[in-house]
Amino acid sequence: MKITDILNSKEPSISFEVFPPKQESGLESVKAAAGAIAAMKPSFMSVTYGAGGSTSKLTVEVASDITNLHNIPVLPHLTCVASTKEHVRGMLDQIHANNIDNIMALRGDLPKDGIICNDYKHASDLIADIRSIDPDICIGGACYPEGHIECEHKSDDINFLKLKVDAGCDFLTTQMFFDNNIFYNFLYRIKDKGINVPVLPGIMPITTAKQLSRSVALSGTSVPERFRAIVDRFGDDPAAMRQAGIVYAAEQIIDLIANGVTHIHVYSMNKPDVAKDILAALNGIVG
Ligand code: FAD
């Protein structure tokens, strides 16, 4: 099933993300976590792609299990910064062979060792190439309500986003944000530039202070005072921090739904317990 068909539905829904193991030895535990999340019947699940493509085979393997074993629509990710065109064709073959209808097409972070492949420069190049190979596959792309960390001006970032959508991107998923007003403002700005594909807000439940500092350092996402106060107060108390982080994410989701957003993607990070608690907090609102 295509993600765009899910996003066209008017019923509120939640999707979850998992990431593949770094090594083959971790595959069974990731598959078990993905299976436990799939059992909660999310609208779909995404499976990230290891930086530099190190876990590319495992991404499709976990994704195949989710859709072919657990019957949940799936969105495997693919990054191109270190990929050749040949590798991308091989990945598409695997995706087709596993009856998967969707792909999230990304550039990926620039590798620290500086080894890049010049077949694709930006995600828009990857999207155009995938679209030329498969006119029917549903392609997702990433977007950044606060601007991508490498881009100096938000307006440039949105102009590049328009190129990405025009290259054949069917929907967008956002980087995490902790202030919904930033997302609402972003929606106005992209509409103004003629970007009309569905935009799926990405919400990350923060359950430890360390997770917050790591995520913020990587993405440049801003932390509102209200959330910073929560982390200052509960950061040293694991149970309290976990509970406060889940409530904060659930409140963000409720506000989004109240403001007319129907579909929300949750960065559940291979944690079925977090996915379960988020859904419990939305009981009566979603599903
Ligand atoms: P692009 O769209 O290519 O943008 C990258 C930068 O280049 C931006 O600053 C943009 O403004 C600029 N740019 C774009 N086009 C042009 C142009 N034509 N000329 C000049 N500048 C341009 N990483 C992973 O390794 N694996 C994953 O599975 C993964 N999943 C993700 C899922 C989501 C929803 C998000 C938001 C991010 C994800 N990432 C993942 C991280 C992502 O790979 C990084 O943020 C990466 O740095 C940018 O990828 P992109 O696809 O947005 O790149």
User: Mind telling me which CATH architecture this is?
Assistant: Alpha-Beta Barrel
Strand order in the sheet with the most strands: 7-6-5-4-3-2-1-9-8
Task: Estimate the global geometry from the Cα principal axes.
Answer: globular
- Structural domain count: 1
Q: Count the strands?
A: 9
The radius of gyration over CA amounts to: 18 Å
Name the CATH class.
Alpha Beta
* Unreliable sequence segments: none
> Looking at CATH, which topology would you report?
TIM Barrel
User: Fraction of residues in helices?
Assistant: 40-55%
Strand content: 5-15%
Q: How would you state the average pLDDT, rounded?
A: 95
Number of contiguous helices: 11
Biggest sheet layout: 9 strands, parallel
Secondary-structure element series:
HEHEHEHEHEHEHEEHHHEH
| Heterogens | flavin-adenine dinucleotide
Topology:
Layout: H1 3-7, E1 13-18, H2 27-38, E2 45-47, H3 56-69, E3 74-79, H4 85-97, E4 102-106, H5 123-133, E5 138-143, H6 154-166, E6 171-174, H7 180-192, E7 199-200, E8 202-203, H8 209-219, H9 225-234, H10 238-258, E9 263-266, H11 272-281
Parallel strand pairs: 1-2, 1-9, 2-3, 3-4, 4-5, 5-6, 6-7, 8-9
Descriptive terms for the model:
binds flavin-adenine dinucleotide, globular, 46% helix, TIM Barrel, 9-stranded parallel beta sheet, 287 residues, alpha/beta, 9 strands
Description:
The chain has 287 residues and is of the alpha/beta class. The chain is 46% helix and 13% strand. The chain has helices spanning 3-7, 27-38, 56-69, 85-97, 123-133, 154-166, 180-192, 209-219, 225-234, 238-258, 272-281, and strands spanning 13-18, 45-47, 74-79, 102-106, 138-143, 171-174, 199-200, 202-203, 263-266. The protein is globular. The two termini are 19 Å apart. The model has no long low-confidence stretch (mean pLDDT 95). Bound molecules: flavin-adenine dinucleotide.
